[in-house]
Amino acid sequence: MLAAVILSGGASSRMGSPKALLPYQGRPFLEHLLEITIHPEIGVRRVVLGADAESIAKAIPLKANEMIINSQWEKGQLSSIQAAVRKLPAGTDGMLLCLIDHPLISSALVGELIAQFYKSRKPIVLPVYEGRRGHPVIFSASLYPELLRAPLETGARAVVWVHKHGVEEVPTSEQGCVLNLNDPETLNRALDRQS
User: Fold this and answer.
1) Which residues does the UniProt record annotate as the domain MobA-like NTP transferase (predicted)?
2) Which of 44, 150, 155, 189 has the smallest number of CB atoms closer than 10 Å to its CB?
């Protein structure tokens, strides 16, 4: 069983409003990511909230045990990953890590990554679009202790670098896996391409 972890802890300062609530195909980014992470191998879902926790929790129906509030969100993305790892139940095989600013991905891609994780038995599985690594990333449970010890300045990348021979790259035609939607211009360009 895998845990799906959606990181939505940042302040969205460049975007000007919470990224989790931005519309994509008629519904908020977060709702889209929650839907595409429904999969038989995913038994746990956690959404890490921080700066805009209150407004996001009001707008999106989340169960109490699905929400994790990262009070240290200002320390960056790794602090949210660590908050999630600490709250995962025992017995997960790993976690599928989704970023709220990489929402333009499909359930098909999620399914492919999960299939490759169980087939390859590699500790890290990630999509690759035209030679570029993207998101979401699956980290094996064996790497949880390393994620908890990773330096905040390099984040989860530090763990990926250490295990460079343990990365299973999954080729995809989905450009969304490498699109970081951090500001209105990037968002509008990406949505224009999708329509």
Assistant:
1) 4-160
2) 189
> Model confidence over 63-85: pLDDT tens digits?
889 999 999 999 999 999 999 99
- Alpha-carbon distance of 22 to 132, in angstroms, equals 25
DSSP label at 1? -
- Which neighbouring-strand residues pair with 49? 8, 69
Q: Which amino acid is at 1?
A: M
- As a whole number of Å, the end-to-end CA separation of the chain is 35
Does residue 144 sit in helix, strand or coil?
helix
- CATH top-level class of 2-194: alpha beta
Cβ atoms within 10 Å, residue 168: 17
3-state DSSP of 66-116: HEEECCCHHHCHHHHHHHHHHHCCCCCCEEEEEECCCCCCCHHHHHHHHHH
Residue 182 reports pLDDT greater than 80: no
Q: Note if the pTM is more than 0.85.
A: yes
